[in-house]
Write a structure and sequence with these properties.
Blueprint (H helix, E strand, L loop, with lengths): L16 E2 L7 E4 L26 E3 L8 E4 L2 E6 L8 E2 L4 E2 L26 E6 L5 E2 L3 E6 L5 H15 L8 E5 L15 H11 L9 E4 L7 H4 L10 H7 L8 E4 L8 H20 L4 E4 L4 E6 L10 H14 L3 E4 L2 H4 L3 H6 L4 H21 L9 H5 L5 H9 L7 E5 L9 E5 L5 H11 L3 E6 L12 E5 L2 H6 L6 E2 L1 H5 L4 H16 L6 H5 L15
Parallel strand pairs: 10-11, 10-12, 12-13, 15-16, 15-19, 16-18, 17-18, 19-20, 20-21
Antiparallel strand pairs: 1-2, 2-3, 3-6, 4-5, 5-7, 8-9, 8-14
């Protein structure tokens, strides 16, 4: 709900604020550059202070100790009287206590079933295990950080010398990480980073061509990372000969093997093995598949107060479209959505799903307690500069990415998806840990919203970047794929941008369009989640 319906953000634009619910007593200033003290809104409200863009203004007088409401949720309590027209920021608020994990609404929201969304397709790569890739990439798995330099050198040569001969292969990537050895690899929670790396190696965009580079002396031996039976693919030559499937053998280049004499012999071994995988990948072709084969991860980073107004609601609308089309959507970020747990458990499709979400939030609470840190540390300086006062306000804007569909499943960190629909994938909110874990779960397309701006990108999957506001979309015109800021200005509706996003997903998944992150090859490192206590 806005104070104005003007159609563009220019210096002459009338003062504009956005209120998320009729019962809210604050709204955010939408004008580029903010508004000076003395500004009078069409409603008659006059600004007492200069208010930056995306920051909150009090719509009415708020008494000391009174609720400050946004999204019709108390995001804080006034530390002193706040007159109408005042800039409301974190220094004026006491943050609410975290919602207890007992007595939550369990599977109470039963939305009316939506009609299936049929007839939408994309051009993808079918894999032998039934999954579908949106890209055709050779991934080289590494068992330990020690081999990263050699593997990177080899990958650069593969791209320069081999890849031009295989035009149907999109890229070659090394799955680099900082894990693989040390005492902690035998700790109880070590299964999380190990299964994460295992499941990333089997991501649909890699076509089942598993190739491993090992040092030789590391604790994470190839057979421990990818034990027999963990590669659920078909040996096509065996099928052709006998009509039966067989387990794909593990292809390992071990740098400490006696056969390697000198650095270049190691690199040459990697190239020889890579060429075999490239030949098989190059024989693959895209085919028409239903939109139900999309596995989309949604995430936000560098968030601002517009995130929950424009980009994230548009993602939520698109999420509902995808679920109606039979696709799978993962939303995540335990460290952010914890303060909206009651909204999530109420939307669970079953009590078991609700209880699984509660378990993940309880783990996070215990993690904070062990490290003696407070959840208030979640909001970053950039979040606050973008108008987000605390984690409660941030959580409300983050949750809306999940849309309105029932939550049909929960997966723990590093686990692989086993069902369709709207899934809560438990991950930290840290951008690259979240992205890494969603890759492990099996996503083949990623959507990332940002208000402050971040050049986020993954080499393993296309990343569609969504700007929350016009100013960012203008300044970062060659990094943002969609401008959701048009929602704030009234040029487009949430539904308009949601449909635009859905159509772009089909084009990007088909390879008809590349994202800006792909264009510039903005590929950040993977970060394995190693849940040791905070220190």
């Amino acid at each position: 709900m806005t104070d104005s319906t003007a159609s563009s953000t220019t210096p002459a634009r009338p003062p504009l604020h956005i209120k998320m619910d009729e019962r809210d007593n604050v709204a955010i200033v939408a004008n580029d550059g903010g508004l000076p003290a003395g500004t009078v809104f069409p409603s008659g409200l006059t600004l007492v202070d200069k208010v930056p863009q995306a920051h909150k203004v009090a719509l009415v007088d708020i008494a000391e100790g009174g609720e400050v409401r946004r999204y019709n949720v108390p995001i804080g309590y006034a530390l002193k009287p706040i007159p109408a027209g005042t800039w409301v920021h974190e220094r004026l608020l006491r943050m609410p206590e975290a919602r207890e994990l007992e007595g939550l609404p369990i599977a109470t929201v039963k939305p009316d079933p939506q009609p299936p969304l049929e007839g939408y397709t994309f051009e993808g790569y079918r894999n032998a295990d039934g999954s579908v890739g949106t890209r055709n990439i050779l991934a080289i798995t590494q068992t330990v950080q020690c081999v990263a330099g050699v593997t990177d050198f080899a990958v650069q040569r593969i791209k320069a010398e081999l890849l031009p001969r295989f035009p149907n292969v999109d890229d070659v990537v090394a799955l680099e990480h900082t894990y693989g050895c040390g005492v902690a690899i035998d700790a109880p929670d070590a299964i999380i980073p190990i299964r994460t790396l295992r499941n990333i190696s089997l991501n649909p965009n890699f076509g089942g061509e598993v190739m491993v580079v090992s040092l030789g002396c590391e604790k994470l031996q190839p057979e421990r990372l990818l034990p027999p039976g963990s590669i659920p693919l078909v040996d096509e030559r065996n099928v052709a000969d006998t009509g039966t499937s067989a387990e794909t053998p593990l292809d390992v280049v071990c740098l400490q093997d006696d056969a390697h004499v000198g650095f270049m012999s190691m690199v040459d071994s990697i190239l020889r093995q890579a060429e075999l995988h490239l030949e098989r990948l190059n024989a693959r072709r895209r085919e028409t598949v239903p939109a139900s084969e999309l596995v989309v991860g949604v995430q936000c980073g560098g968030s601002d107060a517009f995130s929950g107004v424009t980009a994230n609601p548009a993602v939520g609308y698109c999420t509902d479209l995808l679920v109606r089309a039979g696709a799978t959507v993962m939303f995540s970020e335990t460290t952010e959505v914890r303060d909206g747990i009651d909204q999530l458990t109420s939307r669970a499709s079953t009590p078991e799903v609700a209880e699984a979400m509660i378990r993940e939030m309880a783990w996070y609470d215990a993690y904070l307690q062990r490290g003696r840190v407070d959840r208030s540390a979640n909001t970053t300086p950039g979040n606050k500069k973008g108008g987000l006062s605390n984690i409660v306000e941030k959580a409300m804007g983050s949750i809306v990415k999940s849309g309105s569909s029932p939550i049909s499943g929960v997966i723990a960190p590093g686990e692989k998806l086993k069902q369709r629909g709207l899934i809560y994938a438990a991950t930290p909110a840290s951008d690259f840990i979240c992205g890494t874990l969603q890759l492990a779960a099996g996503m083949n397309l990623h959507v990332f919203t940002t208000g402050r701006g971040t050049p986020y990108g993954l080499a393993q999957v296309p990343v569609i970047k969504v700007a929350t506001r016009d100013d960012l979309a203008r300044r970062w015109h060659d990094l943002m794929d969609i401008n959701a800021g048009t929602i704030a200005t009234g040029e487009k509706t949430i539904a308009d941008v949601g449909w635009e996003m859905f159509q772009l997903m089909l084009d990007v998944a088909s390879g008809r369009k590349k994202t800006w992150a792909e264009h510039w090859k903005l590929h950040n490192a993977l970060v394995l989640f190693n849940p040791a206590p905070v220190t």
